[in-house]
Amino acid sequence: MTKRGIQFDTADPKHRQRIIKISEVAAELFGTKGYLETSIDDIAAAARVTKGGVYYYFKSKAEILYFICSTYVDTDMESLEQSLKRFDASIEKIKFIVFRHIEHYSMYEYSAKTLLNESYCLPTRYFKRVKSREREYLQIVKSVLSEYLGPGVKKSVITALAFSLFGLLNWIYSWYDPKKSLKPKELSNIIFQLFVNGIKAGPRS
Amino acid sequence: MTKRGIQFDTADPKHRQRIIKISEVAAELFGTKGYLETSIDDIAAAARVTKGGVYYYFKSKAEILYFICSTYVDTDMESLEQSLKRFDASIEKIKFIVFRHIEHYSMYEYSAKTLLNESYCLPTRYFKRVKSREREYLQIVKSVLSEYLGPGVKKSVITALAFSLFGLLNWIYSWYDPKKSLKPKELSNIIFQLFVNGIKAGPRS
Question: Which of the residues A83, B7, B57, B106 has an alpha carbon 20 to 30 A from that of B175?
Answer without folding.
Answer: A83
